[in-house]
Amino acid sequence: MITEWWNGLQRLVYDRPLKAELLIHGRYKIKEVLGMGSYGITYIAFDIKKGDSIVLKQLRKTKAKTDSGIRSFQRETQMLKVLEQHEHVPNLLDEFQNEHGFFIVMEWVKGDTFEDMIFRDQKTYSEKETIHILLELLNIVENFHQKGIIHRDLRIPNIILRDGKLHIIDFGLACFVTDEEFQDLNDHPEKLRMRAVSVKSDLFALGHFALFLLYSSYEPQSKKERSWEEELEISPSLKSILRKMLQLDEPFQSVISVKTAITSMHVKAKRP
Ligand SMILES: Nc1ncnc2c1ncn2[C@@H]1O[C@H](COP(=O)(O)OP(=O)(O)OP(=O)(O)O)[C@@H](O)[C@H]1O
């Protein structure tokens, strides 16, 4: 309890965001705070050398003192380097360290996250639209997996739509499928499903992502809470695919097997 209080106080004192208009590294002028995550503070800044707006991510000072904090930042940088020039991932533009700590500079994907679209804009998605988006995401994630990368944080705030094209951000928890040290078998089973160093974690997360989309058009008929399978009016074949993605039934072992299941579902739907 005292430790929590002390950590909270430390964050308040040391993790205050940098002020707007401050020039960092001789070229990045802070414009506004985009978000304050568990490890970093993210800003929109203006690169006066290139004349372009960029995203600047600063490792929280309290996290810069911890191995896990530094590792998360290094991991994000490393993954962005491996995925350099990927059309669905922001480009890493710079990395540096100064009196304010560790920074990475990346392309600003100026679009809307699915969290914005569902909760702020109240956008709704049908089953057909959900499947279409899911398939596009599966193609992107399949490419990460081919490079040996597991994202481990494919949530609605980390998927951005810009000019009709999907982008995936936040590689702070990503790791290589061979990185056994990231596997904490003592984690709670629920956390393990999302964070295990396995392609199944990304499929689990995408299953959840699909549920968010499907729930956007759900209107409760009664106050009684039921399971998603009872509440959502979706086809039995999509239900069965989601059950496998969510590891409620024998899980899919690869993106390709999910894609095959979805494609055969379309074929079935087309038959009279
Ligand atoms: N390259 C980017 N382009 C556009 N927006 C971005 C980019 N990177 C991050 N953001 C946005 O900045 C905000 C902060 O993101 P960030 O990933 O740093 O932390 P978080 O998601 O708030 O927290 P956590 O790291 O704990 O998940 C989010 O709203 C995210 O959508």
From TrEMBL:
Keywords: ATP-binding, Nucleotide-binding
Ligand binding (ATP): K57
Domain Protein kinase, chain residue ranges per copy: 28-272
GO molecular-function terms, A-Z: ATP binding; protein tyrosine kinase activity
Presence of the UniProt keyword Cell cycle in the record: no
Entries under InterPro entries matching the protein: Kinase-like_dom_sf, Prot_kinase_dom, Protein_kinase_ATP_BS, Tyr_kinase_cat_dom
Database matches in Pfam families: Pkinase
Protein name: Protein kinase domain-containing protein
Species this protein is from: Fictibacillus phosphorivorans
